[in-house]
Amino acid sequence: MTMKPSSIAALALAAVCGANAVANAEGVPETRWVTSWYAAPQAVWDDGFILPTNVPRWLDNQVLRETVRLSAGGRAVRIVLSNCYGSAQVQLGEVRIGLRDGSAPPQRLTFSGHADVAIPPGADVTSDPLTWTVPPLARLSITTYVPGRARVASFHWGARQTIEVDQGKDTRTGAGTPPDAVGHIDGRLFLNAVLVEGEGTGHTVVTLGDSITDGNGSTPNTDRRWPDFLAQRLASHHIGVANAGISGARLLHDGMGQNALARFERDVLAQPGVSDVIVLLGINDIGWPGSPFAPAERAVTFDELTVGYRQLAVAAHLRNVRITVGTLPPFEGALEGTPYAGHYSPAKEAMRTRLNDWIRSASAFDTVVDFDAVLRDPDHPRRLRAEYDSGDHLHPGDAGYRRMAEAVDVARLAANGGKP
Questions:
Q1: Which of 84, 109, 190, 370 has the maximal Cβ count within 10 Å?
Q2: How many of the other CB atoms lie within 10 Å of CB of 143?
Q3: Residue 362 to residues 275, 326, 367: CA-CA distances in angstroms?
Q4: Exposure string (b/e) for 367-382, b if CB count within 10 Å is 16 or more?
């Protein structure tokens, strides 16, 4: 599959201009923008890949109604829309935001004072601030009107979330499934981030990972990924969680998204208010080669993996961002009985074990979270515990994701206002 270069202009601008406003001479408390919700953009791949995108190639005179659950709350909001892998401009009409339960009517967003916006190829656009107090963990409905024919080149695959698709222009409905919904799409289209403005020491924790971070195996449309459970634990600390998980993501090679080193700037370092990143990557680097996902690819080496991790740590520390690395959960029997079998082998298990031992002892990271230890079956440590297994022996289910979030040291993330 061919990936196109991405643009980080809009998020980088938000990080520079909005993330750290200082108190004025009268002592007004400082405010800062943080990322309260995030979906990492991916390039739409061609039909030659083993997994279908399940998104239309074009939209035309349609409304997309997307539900997002915030992490941190705030007194103003912005959204970011992305066309970072597009080769042509995307014209969007009216965009509205409201509470999903309908208790607050949808409000129209503007972009540099205009109700409509054109997203240039390879770019993101950020809405003007909307003064609107939203509580932590609020579920929002965001409706986007596509007035003409627009190519879908940037999207977010799966995400255990459904987009409701309506025909026509009405974006005013903000609650529930509209009676005139004409279709559904799994994933995200154009919607990239929701930013909130708060006071004091609020900051952003980014979770950088693959399908385990993206929530595969969790109950759809219920916000039960491990970053969602982490957001619940951090909500009282005014800390946002930006989920930068991509199914199929890898540390070293492109797959269903760019490799981690290529997307680290956009998906992590450019996030407004970022203080910490939690990295859980490597199982696809180990599992994909020789499987139906990458049948001709050679096996990854231990040195390649450790160099990749060290490079992420260097990039984070140069920007004063703390880095936590998670050990890789067990995966014996992964995807057996499916068209994707071949993900696991004894040699791949040996590499996972060796890498986990290195992660636990490496001095390159600020801290480690031992996901392997909390998820493995104590009687069969190469496998997930049955109560934590979604059933495919690779992805945890709801209970497993909750346990992962419980393993994260929240006090450490909240310490020192997010400063290393």
A1: 190
A2: 23
A3: 21, 12, 9
A4: ebbebbebbbbeeeeb
Burial 276-296 (b: 16+ CB within 10 A, else e): bbbbbbbbbbbbbbbbebbee
- CA-nearest of 387, 391, 388, 326 to 360 is 326
Q: Which helix (H) or strand (E) holds 166?
A: strand 154-167
Q: Exposure string (b/e) for 58-85, b if CB count within 10 Å is 16 or more?
A: ebeebbbbbebbbbbbbebbbbbbbbbb
- Report CA dihedral (228, 97, 43, 164) to the nearest 10 degrees: 90
Residue 32 dihedral angles phi and psi, to the nearest 5°: -150, 150
- Indicate the DSSP class of residue 49: S
Rounded CA separation 313/364 (Å): 6
Helix H segments across 143-225? 211-214
- What is the predicted pLDDT for the residue at 104? 77
Q: What is the pLDDT of residues 201-237, one digit of tens each?
A: 789 999 999 999 999 999 999 999 999 999 999 999 9
Burial of 144 (0-12, 13-18, 19+ CB in 10 A): buried
Q: Are 36 and 147 in contact (CB under 8 A)?
A: no
For every residue of 358-387, which 3-state class applies, written as one string? HHHHCCCCCEEECHHHHHEECCEEEEECHH
Distant-in-sequence, close-in-space partners of 5: CB < 8 Å, separation ≥ 6: 122
**Dihedral angle over CA of 284, 290, 294, 298, nearest 10:** 90
